[in-house]
Design brief:
Distance between the termini of chain A: 65 Å
Largest sheet of chain B: 7 strands, mixed
Strand content of chain B: 15-25%
Distance between the termini of chain B: 58 Å
Number of domains of chain A: 2
Shape of chain B: globular
Oligomer: heterodimer
Strand content of chain A: 5-15%
CATH architecture of the largest domain in chain A: Orthogonal Bundle
Largest interface: A-B, 61 and 63 residues
CATH class of the domain at 417-565 in chain B: Mainly Alpha
Number of helices of chain B: 16
Radius of gyration of chain B: 23 Å
Radius of gyration of chain A: 21 Å
């Protein structure tokens, strides 16, 4: 048996948020946190709001804060995808050995709650859009594909896997205090293009992220790297960005282009 | 407030985004409405790749679009329209080059060109890939272009009905999930690009949101659904969650083995082995399981092993990292060291909204593209790697044609009262559905809609699967009829509230039931075996009677079937052997 403690808030009705407790049975081996949420929606409370789509860790809809255990809840939690978080991993024995588990679920932080676990992603996507998240090239286009060596292609490996789930953003203490901070997801995307051999907009991209709400606002706390469900390292990518910006400044200072 | 635009695209996956980009490039005002955020679309879960006869691969230097067309037609068991297939395969190389120029991170060969791998039913290594995350990379790339071109997206708007009068479409009614209100969007043309209907089945590789509602609303608006009986079952989905294990596993050299550790495909497709087309591999796996040669899981049923261990850690990590992720996250196994338990699962809807080569439907101003549409380029069985290609080629063509249609008409005069009439109609329908208002008192009952959906899933899994018989299909049809009756007694309180996902799922279910009926009726009528449609009682292909498309037209009493000839250009039907 599992006790799901789920964050609830409907701004049109509620003055304050609360946690509702739902008793969810073990749904067998392979049960995920998302399966538990669907069990609640389908059987216990049809007003519960949460996003989901692919259920396979690919679409990024269901990032939320999930903590579990028997004792003090919330302390050991992490931003995760509900769909690829197995109950058995969170609470060993909960599925097959009748261990009673407590699972606490909150929405992504640093973004306004629209309802229950659904947050307003406007700011998240706006930051993403400001870094010009698309390939820019002044080169004349070849008849066929660009020639890109495997070594050049490797430079953007992993960075291209970002599913924009927001787990990094929710975990970032800088984003907490600075809504204008571009955030790990947007900076990662900027790095993804800056280090793409086909992109020629280095100068523009450096301007777009080299300001005080950009790369240098990152305090290298590495929460983003710890929580990323795709094992990407946004902090590392931001460090590469910083280095690139500094080198660019030095080059300018010494008058070399 | 009424929203207005020249072209409205419904759906934010690959076909929708590509259509939107094309319509906008033609100078029109375009809006995309998606029930998700576009980057959440199920296109992003495509893994293995996209076919184009680039002849980049050392073993594929003699490849060309004509051979790609032949493989596609043969793969379709000769049900594809060959003129459409030729258009698609001829356009394919430029599609890849354009994606590359837009920044899509395809994997590369040592010479710096786009990498290609072997795929099922293909004569050459023709499938261009980005590791095993090709759909994700292409979806991101198109979304990036949408941002670059400032195309407006209405995120989390569920389109529930089309405004159609006199066989002309002039907009939609949508449920804005955030505001909880119904809204009107008036448009010179509407392009439906809402994806497949996989979730009619329980054991499906598809996203929970791949429900086929877009098909259902076009169907109810008077456009036939074509070839719905052809459902693709992917040979390799992990047991339990039925998440896709890409065909790329076998393309890179993976084996399928039964409990005797035998590569059983030698019995079924001695030449192509594991790289036979999907219908054949799925039937082979199911036969092994049925004959007791597979393994059995008490909860998840029969399965076989997909074994990629011999590819080695380096190749697996480089080319199949997503497979490792999925196996680790959902099965707790490492495919570098252990074989992967797999079983066939519903994967793709070959049929769909009846369109021509430009996405044109029977309703003026209404277009469809991508998995929700049926051109048909896949016929009775789609080849792996052709679906991503279809979304881009026919998304673009639909966008271009819609733009031309809107630009060519006299300045749109919106009939002032028409949208309001449709809005009120939908409002009262939803009120009936959710509060028991009106004569039918729907929504005031006791039936749990999710139970109805679960039973529909079980019915389809058990009776409308890989192997079919008349008695099973008849039983399924009466089951669906009964579920439709029960749907009229559902419990569904509440309507106009913010993020009312319950209402969303109820509306999806309503669409599921209509589409499921069209699938089963088509399957029942087609007394032959062709491609994915395998009738135990009619095991042979019958070109004399059945070399034709099935059309299902909506009536209040249910689907009514008719048919249409297949377009044959170069390739005369012959026996299909691999």
């Amino acid at each position: 048996m599992l006790n799901f403690h789920v964050f609830r808030f409907d701004p049109s009705k509620d003055k304050e948020s609360r946690f509702d407790r739902f008793e969810v049975p073990s749904l067998g081996s392979g049960m995920t946190v998302l399966d538990g949420l669907y069990y609640i929606l389908e059987n216990l409370d049809q007003t519960l709001a949460f996003r989901s789509s692919c259920r396979a860790g690919a679409c990024g809809s269901c990032a939320m804060h999930i903590s579990a255990g028997g004792g003090a809840l919330g302390g050991n939690g992490q931003y995760r995808l509900a769909c690829n978080t197995l109950i058995e991993t969170l609470i060993p024995g909960a599925i097959n050995n009748n261990v009673t588990g407590q699972i606490m679920i909150r929405p992504l932080a640093h973004l306004p709650v629209l309802k229950d676990l659904v947050v307003d992603l406007t700011n998240f996507f706006r930051h993403y859009e400001t870094i010009k998240p698309y390939l820019i090239t002044t080169a004349s286009l070849p008849d066929k594909e660009f020639i890109q060596s495997t070594k050049q292609r490797k430079k953007i490996d992993k960075m291209i896997d970002c599913i924009l789930c927001g787990a990094c953003y929710g975990s970032c203490p800088v984003a907490a205090g600075r809504p204008d901070y571009l955030g790990p997801h947007a900076l990662l995307k900027a790095a993804r293009f800056l280090f793409d051999s086909r992109d020629t907009a280095d100068e523009e991209r450096i301007k777009l992220v080299g300001h005080n709400a950009g790369a240098f606002r990152c305090h290298t706390i590495f929460n983003c790297q710890q929580v990323c469900p795709k094992d990407i390292d946004p902090a590392g990518a931001i460090a590469r960005l910083k280095m690139k910006i500094i080198l660019d400044k030095l080059r300018r200072f010494f008058g070399r282009s | 407030m009424i929203k207005r635009c020249d072209v409205l695209v419904v759906g934010g996956g690959l076909a929708g985004l590509r259509a939107a980009l094309e319509a906008q490039a033609n100078g029109l005002n375009v809006v995309i409405a998606s029930k998700l955020y576009p980057v959440r679309s199920h296109s992003g879960a495509a893994q293995g790749g996209i076919n184009a006869a680039l002849a980049n691969h050392p073993e594929g230097q003699n490849d060309n679009p004509g051979l790609h067309a032949f493989d596609t037609v043969k793969g379709s068991d000769y049900l594809a329209d060959q003129d459409a297939v030729e258009i698609m395969t001829a356009a394919a190389p430029d599609v890849i080059y354009q994606l590359d120029h837009w920044g899509c991170p395809f994997s590369r060969l040592a010479n710096g060109r786009v990498a290609q791998r072997p795929f099922g039913g293909a004569g050459f290594p023709r499938t261009c890939y980005g590791a095993d995350k090709t759909g994700h990379y292409i979806l991101q790339t198109l979304y990036e272009q949408v941002i670059k071109n400032h195309i407006e997206t209405l995120n989390e708007w569920l389109v529930i009905s089309l405004i159609v009068e006199n066989k002309t479409c002039s907009g939609v009614i949508a449920f804005n999930l955030q505001s909880g209100q119904l809204e009107i969007i008036e448009a010179g043309a509407v392009i439906v690009a809402t994806g497949g209907s996989g979730r009619i089945y329980g054991k499906s590789s598809n996203a929970f949101t791949s429900t086929g509602l877009g098909m259902a609303i076009a169907y109810r608006a008077g456009v036939p659904l074509k070839d719905m009986e052809f459902i693709q079952f992917h040979p390799t989905t992990i047991i339990g969650k039925n998440i896709l294990m890409t065909e790329g596993c076998r393309g890179e050299g993976g084996y399928l083995v039964n409990k005797n550790n035998e590569r059983f495909m030698k019995k079924y497709a001695p030449d192509k082995m594991e790289l036979a087309p999907r219908d054949i591999v799925s039937r082979s796996i199911q036969t092994e399981i049925n004959e007791g040669l597979g393994f059995t899981d008490p909860a998840f049923g029969g399965y076989v092993y997909l074994d990629i261990r011999h590819l080695g850690a380096d190749k697996i990590t480089e080319r199949l990292p997503g497979v490792v992720e999925i196996c680790t996250d959902f099965l707790g196994i490492n495919p570098i060291k252990e074989p992967i338990p797999v079983q066939p699962g519903q994967h793709y809807t070959m049929g769909g909204i009846d369109t021509d080569k430009d996405g044109v439907t029977e309703v003026q101003g209404l277009y469809a593209a991508g998995e929700c549409a049926c051109v048909s380029v896949h016929g009775a069985n789609r080849l792996g790697g052709n679906s991503l290609l279809e979304t881009l080629v026919f998304g673009q063509r639909a966008g271009a044609h819609a733009a031309q249609y809107v630009a060519g008409r006299a300045k749109q005069k919106f009939n002032e009262s028409l949208p309001d009439y449709f809005l009120k109609q939908q409002e009262s329908r939803l009120q009936q559905l959710t509060m028991g208002a009106g004569p039918d008192k729907i929504g005031a009952g006791t039936e749990n809609p999710y139970q109805i959906r679960n039973e529909l899933n079980k019915t389809m899994d058990a009776l409308v699967g890989i192997f079919r018989t008349e008695s099973d299909l008849k039983y399924a049809l009466s089951g669906i009829e009964a579920l439709k009756q029960r749907f009229r007694k559902i419990k569904a309180p509440g309507i106009f509230s913010s993020f009312n996902y319950h209402l969303l799922w109820v509306l999806e279910l309503e669409g599921n039931l209509d589409v499921a009926e069209a699938i089963v009726k088509g399957a029942l009528a087609r007394r032959e075996s062709r491609g994915s449609h395998s009738r135990r009682d009619f095991p042979k292909r019958d070109d004399v009677h059945w070399l034709k498309h099935t059309l299902a037209t909506y009536t209040k009493e249910g689907a009514v079937l008719s048919d249409r000839p297949v377009t044959i250009t170069k390739f005369q039907p012959q026996e299909r052997k691999y």
